[in-house]
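Hi Prof. W.,

I finally got the Cation transporter prediction working! I wasn't sure whether to trim anything, so I left the full sequence exactly as given:
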Amino acid sequence: MSHHHHHHVDSTTGKIKIAFFLNFAFTIIELIGGILTNSMAILSDALHDLGDSLSLGLAWFLQKFSNKDHSPQFSFGYRRFSLLAALINSVVLIVGSVFILTEAVPRLLNPEQPNAGGMILLSLLGIVVNGAAVFKLRGGDSMNQKVMTWHMLEDVLGWLAVLIVSVIMFFTDLPILDPIASIGITLFILYNVIKNLVQTMRLFLEGVPNHIDLDDLITKINKIQHVNSTHHTHLWSMDGENHAFSTHIVVPAAATKQEVCNVKEQAKEILGPIKLEHVTIEIEYEDESCSLS
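And this is what came out:
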C-alpha cells in the first residue's frame, strides 16, 4: 500500500473573499442605478450580479471549509465541498438567467426609453469593478475558482455590451436595444454556465478528469518490468484540481521485495505529472486471488 499526500497554502479563499466584497458593493449601486435609469439591461445585470454575489459568498464559505483537514467522518478531507459550491453556483445562475429572460422578452414588444447617460456611467463603473474582480481571481486551478472567474469575465463582457448599446441610444432613439442587449447577455451567460455545470457534474459523478488519458497511464504501468497486468484502476477528482488514483498491480509469484518496490516507484514516476492528492497501489502476486474479485 502506497500513501502519497501533499498540502499547499491555498490562496483561492482570499481571492474569492475580495471578489465577493467588490461584487456585492457594486450590486447595490447597480440595483439603484438600474431603477433610476429605467434600464432593463442594467437591472438584468444587477439581478445577475446579485446571484453572483450570493454565489461568491457561498464559494468563499465552502472554499474555506474545503481546506479543513480530514476527519473520521470525511477521511478524504473536505475538498469536495469546493465542488459543491461550483455546482450550487451554476444552478443559481441558470435560475437567475431564466428569470431575466421572462422579464426582458416582454420589453421587446413594449420598449421603454432608458436614461442612456446614466447607463454609460454605470457601465464604465461596471467594467472597472468586475475587471478588478477578474484580475483578482485569474489563474485559479480549482473548479470553484474557475466558475467564479467565468462569472466575473462574463460580467465584464456584459458591461461592455451595455456601454456600446447605451452610447448608441444616447445619440439615437432606439429603446428596443436595451431589452435586446439584456437577452443577448443572458443567453451568452446561460450557455457558459451550462457548460460549466456539465463539467462540474462529471467531476461530482467521479468521472476521469478531461485532460487525463487513463488508458495511456494503464498502458505505461503495464510496460513496467515485472508487471504482469493491472486491474481495478480508478482515477477521479476531489475538486477539479486535486485528484486521487488507485490500482491493483499483479507481479510474478517469485517477485522479490526489491522488485516490488521498483514497480511501485516506477508507477509513481508515471503518475508524477498529475496533481494527485491520494495514491493507492495494491500489489498482488499472480498465484493469489484479488480481494475485490
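The two ends are 18 Å apart (CA to CA). Does that look reasonable to you?

Thanks,
D.
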